[in-house]
């Protein structure tokens, strides 16, 4: 099969908001321990809370799951969550940066900021995934991912806890694949 | 791989940062690229420029343009007692050490519009250290330093600041330290009578004083690792033996060439102590 003949993807970015923990639970714990791609995740969480999300997923996943610290080198087989109240950015040097810049679309961390900087670093080697959410963060980011030649995956709005975010992403990226969570997982597995 | 447009943009971006350095001596050339590119893209769009080259032309040839651009190049988001757990740890764990010194110098590096400085000044007053302390508040942005020196903040921010102060273990009411009027809170000028405000760059300037405490939070995140190494080297040289360094909640010395020269004093609050004997 031509897909398995060359595996161009080098990283995955995922954005989620309302209902996102449950959606991520259908994906992250099902990745094998030797999953080779790094995965960066922004999920909107209230600021000023110590985030328990990374430890929660670390507990039930075979891949490593951590909350990103500034200038962490990006490694395959590891999931990096944006910390509460910081933007998460990908550097060309494949390190993660944090930023306290103003919220974007009322969000910090912002899905758009992660996706746009990751697209800049990985070009066509990137897969962007937009899951459930109640606002339109991520639409511009996924558009950037696809403009650089990356692949766009969007959760089917009808199966999303909150459909506004996938719908906004579909409108911005008509050629993205619209899939149920099972098929998003399958795409991620096959991309590696 | 990044596409052709992105590559051209990168060339223009590097030239812009070089131009700013050559003409104005602000050195952003080793700032972490992802964030500064985003912010300069915002500036480019805001000033109606088609490209970074056009923005470069403006910043080189139009007076006042550099000051405006500096507002984009430096990030000024802070709160009083931001991350209250940090200040609580200072009160409970660091202050007992500081009380053993007859005189103290504290450096707030990258003080921006002063929120961190006033937090320290209030904490040191509450803990009875103020009279023996000299504060240095430094930043590269003259406009931010002016704001820091004025100590005036929007009244609507006081609710958050008051809550932060309380959570930090505040021993008084925050409203004791400011007067409210016309939608603004003006902090008591006695809080800054022991403060020297100064233009200082962690990128290009040298150490200027021996200090017992350096607080530099959410400044280093905008630097590359190399530049972070330089800045942390300055802090190390400035601190006395067993002096304290406080970083932002998600910043770490782990990747720094100076990591061995510090011990983790309070891990979760990112408080480090310089080793003795160095």
Number of strands of chain A: 10
Q: What general outline of chain A do the C-alpha atoms trace?
A: globular
Regarding quaternary structure, what we see is heterodimer
**Count of folded domains of chain B:** 2
CATH class division of the largest domain in chain B: Alpha Beta
Average pLDDT reading of chain B: 94
Number of helices of chain A: 7
CATH architecture of the largest domain in chain B: 3-Layer(aba) Sandwich
Fourth-tier CATH superfamily name of the largest domain in chain B: Vaccinia Virus protein VP39
Protein name (chain B): Chemotaxis protein CheR
GO molecular function, one term (chain B): S-adenosylmethionine-dependent methyltransferase activity
InterPro entries (chain B): Bact_Chemotaxis_MeTrfase, CheR_C, CheR_MeTrfase, CheR_N, SAM-dependent_MTases_sf
Pfam families (chain B): CheR (PF01739), CheR_N (PF03705)
Structure at a glance:
Chain B: Pfam families: CheR (PF01739), CheR_N (PF03705). The complex is a heterodimer of chains A (192) and B (278). With 192 residues, chain A is an alpha/beta fold.
